[in-house]
Design a protein that fits this description.
Double Stranded RNA Binding Domain; elongated; alpha+beta
């Protein structure tokens, strides 16, 4: 897993780097392949922005969150990424089990 953390208008402290890496590493429970993550942490006036892009297994997961606390922004954006990864894993497992696509199961147009 390769994680790149970039700060715009903010210095990335070792504690902030460690916290971010721990949160991003939790995505591995859904994606078992090589993961490249790019995290951008920004400060604009009083707003803290956390932006995460993850490339893994042919899928790109992206999330952005704006709050007044940087740690809260990281937590919230990683919750978004976790939901996206869980949804992607569900789709892959559904294809492995040979389930019908959603449109066919609901009697969709052919």
């Amino acid at each position: 897993m390769q994680i790149t953390i970039t700060g715009h208008q903010i210095e990335i402290t070792p504690a902030l780097r460690q916290y971010t890496e721990e949160k991003v590493a939790k995505v591995r429970r859904y994606l078992n392949t090589t993961i490249n993550a790019h995290v951008v942490l920004k400060v604009e006036k009083l707003t803290h922005i956390a932006e995460v892009t993850i490339h893994a297994n042919g899928v790109d997961l992206h999330g952005e969150e704006r709050t007044d606390n940087l740690y809260a922004a990281i937590d919230t954006v990683m919750d978004k990424i976790d939901r996206q990864a869980k949804k992607f894993k569900g789709k892959i497992e559904g294809k492995r089990k040979g389930q019908k696509p959603v449109a066919d199961a609901l009697g969709g147009a052919q």
